[in-house]
TrEMBL record:
Keywords: FAD, Flavoprotein, NAD, Nucleotide-binding, Oxidoreductase
Name of the protein described by the UniProt record: Dihydrolipoamide dehydrogenase
Keyword Acetylation: no
Species of origin: Kineococcus aurantiacus
Entry superkingdom: Bacteria
Binding positions (NAD(+)): 187-194, 272
Domain FAD/NAD(P)-binding: 12-324
The protein's required cofactors: FAD
Length: 476
């Protein structure tokens, strides 16, 4: 359904932003019969579908398959050349539907949602104005709720010359139509390491500039193992440096804090993202334009009277991950529908409460080796005041892993809260560990005592047997 432009309409719920999170909010709210309008200024599907999760993983996957084959005698001999970059890029483009959102619009309509295309901004309580590209303004008034799901935008550091040097953001790095000869990457976070490896394996000469260790916030060994892998892929990893000045005259010239210079054809800046809260009319409801939002566990924005403004996903200040944002989106959609019918109880771990955001957030970094982590790291658990026991195990010593790859390199860490004898955090680093992560998420969310986990017997010979080894090393 498309809404008629340039009109004033009253609906139950207005969702601003049709990324993965906005889609989920809208779908859940509409299931109960509420009328829901979704406003989108670019592509239905958001960042994740077109410039983030999907294209970046499509760029990485063929390199992983090739590297996996090279680790297996018999298969390695059948690998006779490098990646076919053109075909990898073509498959990436297939996954973005060539940046066309027709199929996602079709889904939205099939879910009974109404799409309004244009730029939305709040115009006072419960009111949203949408500026269409045809110059019309559609005014929407929400009986129940307005939900902000506007996502996030990249942060460009204030480095002399950087803004004028046509730097790449993750959008350019996931949608590029050709492999740059030389690529410099600034940052040591997830975007930087994933895209540095993707482009290195596609043939770029990559220099990674990180001001500290890689993957800060994860267990330290995760960043170390990923750094070693990047170096093995030929990436020139320079730690402890920052750009002092950037110029572009054809090539980009990055002058570094240590006096050295890096020249490249493209310069990807991957120094984090901030919630997209600018220009969306927050000041019309008593909040600060561009300021950070704070939401309670039901997604209600704090500091706004009347319990009608919600936020979910990247914009909300909660973890900037598609799956976690969608979880928050389901909570918001459900709680809006439930509150429309009457008062709602929202204790922790209820359907209407995003409790997992605080202590059970899973994330996979899709490098080779993969980093799969959930819950608290050892340092975070100690900071939280827990009596912690940390157990490490080399995944390569597990029979299943040794079958997956010759010379399998990887490590697992289990963090146990000794007072309750429950697992509060797990990290796996290694080939093919991404699919292992959900077992850890279930253990952490379920607060399964280690003595009961002992009875969750992993199949032989799978990499999952690392669970048995971790529990044995723990002392069972
Ligand atoms: C390179 C990269 C790779 C990533 N890979 C992963 C991954 O593998 N796994 C993972 O879990 N996460 C990944 N992420 C994070 C993930 O992309 C985000 O967490 C996710 O997209 C957030 O969803 P969202 O719906 O909150 O926001 P978005 O996907 O950003 O969607 C927001 C939507 O709101 C629209 N919008 C904004 N303002 C307005 C307005 N005023 N009016 C109308 N519409 C508006 C935007 O156009 C957009 O479509 C990655 C991020 C990047 C940058
Ligand atoms: N696989 C995944 O789940 C995945 C993949 C990509 C992105 N994401 C999400 O997208 C978000 C953005 O990712 P990101 O990597 O851009 O951000 P990030 O916050 O993870 O990392 C930012 C990096 O930039 C560095 N940095 C920040 N300011 C700097 C400066 N002025 N100079 C030099 N270095 C600087 C930081 O030290 C850090 O290493 C993250 O929240 C991430 O979770 C997830």
């Amino acid at each position: 359904m498309s809404a008629e432009r340039g009109t004033e309409q009253v609906v139950d719920v207005v969702v601003v932003g049709a990324g993965p999170v906005g889609e989920n909010v809208a779908d859940r709210a509409a299931r109960t019969g509420l009328s829901v309008v979704v406003v989108e200024k670019e592509l239905v599907g958001g960042e994740c579908s077109y410039w983030a999760c999907m294209p970046s993983k499509a760029l990485l996957r063929p390199g992983q398959a090739l590297a996996a084959a090279r680790r297996l005698p018999g298969a390695a001999e059948a690998v006779t050349g490098p990646l076919d970059a053109e075909r990898v890029l073509a498959r990436r483009t297939y996954f973005t539907s060539d940046w066309d959102d027709a199929s996602q619009v079709q889904w939205l309509e099939s879910a009974g949602l109404t799409l309004v295309r244009g730029i939305a901004r709040l115009a006072g309580p419960r009111r949203v104005e949408v500026a269409g590209s045809d110059g019309t303004t559609t005014v929407l008034t929400a009986r129940q709720a307005v939900v902000l799901a506007t996502g996030s935008v990249p942060v460009l550091p204030d480095v002399p010359g950087l803004a004028g040097s046509r730097p790449w953001t993750s959008r350019d790095a996931t949608s590029a139509k050709a492999v740059p000869g030389r690529l410099a990457v600034l940052g040591g976070g997830v975007v930087a390491v994933e895209l540095a490896q993707a482009w290195a394996r596609l043939g770029s000469t990559v220099t990674l500039l990180a001001r500290s260790g890689l993957l800060g916030g994860q267990e330290e060994f995760a960043g170390e193992l990923v750094e070693a892998a990047l170096r093995a892929d030929g990436v020139d990893v320079r730690r402890g440096v920052s750009p002092a000045r950037v110029t572009r005259d054809g090539a980009v010239r990055v002058e570094l804090s240590d006096g050295s210079v890096v020249e490249a054809d493209e310069f990807l800046v991957a120094t984090g993202r901030r919630p997209a809260t600018s220009g969306i009319g927050l000041e019309t409801v008593g909040l600060e334009d561009g300021g950070a939002l704070s939401v309670d566990d039901t997604g209600l924005v704090e500091g706004v009277d009347g319990s009608w403004l919600y936020a979910a996903g990247d914009v909300s200040g909660r973890p900037k991950l598609t799956h976690q944002g969608k979880y928050g989106g389901r909570v918001v959609g459900d709680v809006i529908a439930a509150r429309a019918a009457g008062p709602v109880q929202t204790p922790p771990w209820s359907r209407f409460t995003a409790t997992a955001d605080h202590r059970a957030v899973p994330q996979v970094v899709f490098t080779d080796p993969e980093v799969a982590q959930v819950g608290l790291t050892a340092a975070q658990a100690r900071e939280a005041g827990l009596d912690v026991k940390v157990v490490d195990y080399e995944i390569g010593d597990v029979a299943g892993a040794s079958l997956v790859a010759d010379g399998y390199t990887g490590r697992a860490r289990m963090v146990v809260d000794e007072d309750r004898r429950v697992v509060v955090g797990v990290t796996f680093v290694g080939q093919d560990v991404a699919e292992l992560l959900h077992s850890a998420t279930v253990a952490v969310v379920g607060e399964v005592p280690v003595d009961r986990l002992w009875h969750a017997v992993p199949s032989y010979p799978t990499i999952s047997e690392v669970w048995l080894r971790l529990l044995e090393t723990y002392g069972l």
